[in-house]
Structure formats: structure tokens, C-alpha cells
Amino acid sequence: MSKMGNLLANMFKKKKKKKLLAIENISRLSTQLPDFPKGGGFATGTIDLGGLEVCQVSTFNKIWATREGGPGGVGATFYEPSSMPDGFFLLGHYSQCNNNPLFGWVLGAKPCASDPLSLALPTSYSLVWTSESQKIKQDNNGYIWLPMAPNGYKAVGYVVTTSPEKPSLERIRCVRSDFTETVEVDRWIWGLKDEIDPNGLNVYGLRPKDKGVQAMGVSTGSFLVQNIGGSSDVSPCCLKNTKSTLFSMPNLSQIKALIEAYSPIIYCHPDEKYFPYTVNWFFQNGALLYQKGLETSPSAVQPDGSNLPQGGSDDGSYWLDLPIDDSAKEKIKKGDLDNANAYFHIKPMFGATFTDMAIWVFYPFNGPARAKLEFLTISLGKIGEHVGDWEHLTLRVSNFDGSLKCVYFSEHSGGTLLDASQLEFENGNKPVAYASLNGHAFYSKPGLVLQGSGRNGIRNDTAKGKAVMDTGVRAVVVAVDHLNAVEPPWLNYNRKWGPKLSYEIAKEIEKVKNALPGKLKEVFERIVKGVPNEVLGEEGPSGPKMKNSWNGDDKY
Prior knowledge:
Radius of gyration: 26 Å
Number of helices: 6
Largest sheet: 6 strands, mixed
Low-confidence stretches: 1-28
Number of domains: 2
Distance between the termini: 32 Å
């Protein structure tokens, strides 16, 4: 493996406000930003999008707030940047639901000397919505305005005021169309209860419509307004990085510093029996490669996976399995947490204004599932068991200053994206994750999460056990998209990391159901129908590079 492939990261007022304002805390991570090595365009404060220079502003003044509606019914607050760096102009205001500490940002922009016409003043404003007629808890009346852009330009954000008079044209800038792309709604920020009211609205986060490592749309940090009675033909756009190079992405030494600063701490459940393992040790300790039609003569896998079939598709022709010998099989199943590696994939996101660090953890074996049925917890026998379990966390870092903005927790076939303000941290700025018992899904808090409805479902139990994995201690960078890193052969093995089960899942389900008392049989059937195949363990999972998130955005 190359030097890059073997890279290890071993070093490593509360203030009273007005009663009507629900956001009372401004969130900050526990320590200052790392002192990143110099070089390139990473963490320099600004990014050139090819003629338009942008900066990220995260200090705000409150404009208007309401204390009802939206997630949790606690309202939302609208903000403007408290100041802009010299020469930079406002592109749009910020909004956030009141159920979390203030933790956000918006972009400011200024034309590069080579392209002085990349920004323009609006010609006027259109009043999108006002709270004047709304009987809601608010500190005063609010007004949301959309700038009207001149020909060849587009608005990329709104202006919020507490006055019915149009804002000054000097207050905001529009962006030339070639620096913009279309958007879609992101997380719900706020909305009113009465959806019949034509003056009502919903407010959402705003993000580029095209997503993934190749997409060049740039989030502005602003929001999107949709009137309940009908949306306007004109809505804001996002920005676009028009440069062909990814100059703002971190270099190798900066990647190492990011790993040292932010590599997550993973807590295993106290009752966990199946721990992570290093891929190479999995091969060295007897993992076997099977080929369709030659099932009676499996092949041993080379320690680096060099004899695994490369590329192609998951066509069922090959799969991996545990050793045939029972004692060797049980040894591998248990894993080896003390020597397990975490595998890092570094990729650009949102037009290289962010760096995503996807951290993959390999478990040789996924344990049996358990279900909660009313007041009972039952074992599901072999259901949920499978060989070769890949789980991951993704850290999203701002390329403007290297700050951690959010973390994605993979949870079986889905996951949860949380702002850094919502996370638990240890050892400085290292986010904490909890791996569920047997299933190894990641969660941000200890406790019980049910896959199902109401009081019934597949159990995902997490707790702070003594078995802990610091993913930065034995970090291995296996892929860096913008630097064309040499990848280990096993990463390009596109088939299953485990076999289809030798038992019939339907019979196993029937066995569990028959052991249940009357009404619980129906409850159990409903749970099983709604559970993804990955949880049921019908076949071994695919490797990291075969996941949709490898080239895409985890959340979508």
C-alpha cells in the first residue's frame, strides 16, 4: 500500500435574552480550532469559486423570532451576520429552529479582481410573507423579502426585517447566473399549524439539488421559503464552484491534522461479543473466497486482498465467508478491538467548500437481532446474523476554517445527520458515537432506539461500555478523491463480504413467531415486514465502495 494508504493518525453563558426568544445558547466546540499546517487553499478563510470569492460567517444578530410552530412547536429565529469581512457583501439571512443552540453560518461574497461583475445590486424587493395577520407568539411583526435580481443575475437568499418598508438595495447582493445552481429543500426549520391559511408558510434549509463528490453546487447557509397557499415562481439559488481544480481541499498533512483533531470515539455496548477487526487480519486468520460453481474449493485470501476479483458488479459470482474450522471461525467472529483499524475516505462536498471524512469500521460478524414486543424482549435466534458488517460515520468539515460542522451516523440502511452542536465530545473536539449491541449501528446518544412503531420493534441498544475505539489511534487513509490515492485491493472488491445464509429466513421467522403468545404473533409479523433486509441478515453486505454514499451525500 502507498504511503498515503498507510497514513496513521496516532498523535493526536449562558446569557439571558428576551423571554420571547427560545434560542439562549450559542454552541461552540470544546476547544479552539487546530493549528493546521500551511499550504494550498484549505482553512485560509476564503474560497475562490472561479471569479467570485466567498467567506463563511457564523456570528449573528437576531432580527425576528417566533415561539411556536416548526419542529417541537417551539418556533424559529431569523438572523443577519453581525459583521462582514472587509469587501464582502451579504447574500442572504440565516434561520434556525429554536430547539437547538445557535450553530449556523452563511456565505458572504466579493468579486475577484479578474471578474468585477460577478455581483450586482437588486433592482427591488418582493414581499414573500409577513406575520402581520398571524396570531402567533412573536416579539414583533416579521417580513421576509426576496431580492429582485437584474437580468443575468439571481438571488441566493432572503432579507428579513421588522419593518413593512422595503430594505435598502445596498443591503444585499445578487449573483451572476453562471455562478448559481438550482436548489432543493433540506431540513424543516419552521412552519405554521394552519395549513389552510394562504398567508402561512414553511421555512426549510436550502441545499444544492445535485449532490455528491462530482457536484459543484455550493450551499449558502441560507433558507428557502415556501408559501402554503402556493409557491412563488421565483426562489433563491445556491452558488456554484466554476473552478476545475479543488484547491480548497486539504493536503496530506492537513488531513492528518483533521484526523488527530476530530477522529470519533466509539463506545461498544457492555454486552457486545462481536467487535471490529482489521481487514488484513480477517484475511490472515482464514477468511475464504468462494466462487459460484466451485463452492467445494474456496480460496484463501491474501493478506492485502490482492487475489480478490477487482471491479465488476455484485453479480453473485463471488463472496467471502468465515473459515471452515469451528475454532478459527469463532475467533474471527469475536473480532479484535485492541488492534482494529478505522478506514478513512476523504472526499469533496458542495463544490469543495466542505471535506467529508467517511470513517469505515469492519466487523467480521453481525450478531443476532432482538425485538421488543410490548413488555417483552425476545431473541430472534439467527435472524440478523451475517458475516462481514461494514458501518461508518461521516464528519463534515468546513474548508474555510477547518471547523467540524456536522456528523452522519449510519444506522443499518439509513442514518442521521446532526449538527456538531448536538453532539457529545471527548478529548477535545472528538465526537462520541455509540455502536448498538450486535447490530453495530451508530447513534449519538446511549439508550434504546426501536426500528418499528410505537412500543414495538427491533431493538438497537447502546450504552457506554468499557470497550472503546478511538478511530484516530489506528487510522488508515484508504482513499483521497482529490489526490488520487493508491487504494488497497480489498477496497475494489465489489462483491459480498459474506454469504447468503444457509438457513431459510422464513422458517426462522416462523420458529420465533410460534413461540409467542397469541396477540404478539401479529405484532411480530408487522415488525418483520417493516425491517430492511440488512437487519434481517438475509445476505452478507457489500463493501464501502459499493455503498451509494461513497460517491454521494450520506443523507440522501
